[in-house]
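Hey, can you fold this one?
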Amino acid sequence: MCNTLFQGETAVFHHISKFYGWESKPIENVEITSPILPKVAEELFFNGDETGLNCIGARPGMGKTTLMLQKILNEPERRAYIYSPEIHAKKLIDRMTNILYTALSKEEYKQFNCHPTRYLAGLEIYICECNIGIDELCDELKSVKGDIYIDYLQMLRPEGKTYPNELESEYTIGELSYLAENHAVTVLSQINPIVEVREDHCPTIEDFRFFEMQVPMYADRVSVFYSNEYYTGEIDDIHRSIFRFRILKPAENKDYNSFEINLIRTAIKETFYCENGRYWYGETRAVFFAEGDGVKNDHGVK
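Sure. Predicted structure:
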């Protein structure tokens, strides 16, 4: 493998290939035209060379990590840093291969020759799966060039320091804001469980968990998403459910707290061909897509 792929490594962020120990060279000259992230969902993130702090909130199991990984895979030319102490790197990689399998056409997927991880090995993705303090995290990332993804906000704490909740939140905001001055920083966050007993289940900015509510208050971009079908069980035979994304900030040219994007998520358990040549029973492959796009690979959704 070309050593230039590791130029973005730090003491705790390692290139994606290190977690599987791939010895073969990355697949080159792969042509992918299918959008892995629906175009309408691009408004949920910073794009191009935009910088700032982006906060995306939802209840557990809604697909925050899936959405994040779709964004990363949709921009293979960009360098990405993922801080994910709760989900191990190998699990993230499995999710990425599942997304590729589901979102790409069969013709595009055939280019991997049943080795999607060799495609991932050629991307500039760096992962930290160890739990470190917000201080060390910002020190590690302040000089890197690339987009930063934190999964998730409630895992961030000052290392070796004890503060009252209010001061801890202020400290976290300060560190994240400093990091976001020169980077696009996307932070995933839990949402207060109170939304589950509401009739419409629609989160607001006040529903971000506990004292971390202050972080989205100071963020440049904030969005939340939810699904009524998730709670009612009204999901069709291929496990499609509609997720409503509400952009809370910025509010320019939009009615604050009312701009929505509807995406559909499939979640299917079945066997698929993995890179060691065997069929195996994979865990849920979930992917978001826009109505009319459809899942490209084997799900009958067009």
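The CA atoms of residues 252 and 267 lie 34 Å apart. Let me know if you want another pass with a different chain boundary.
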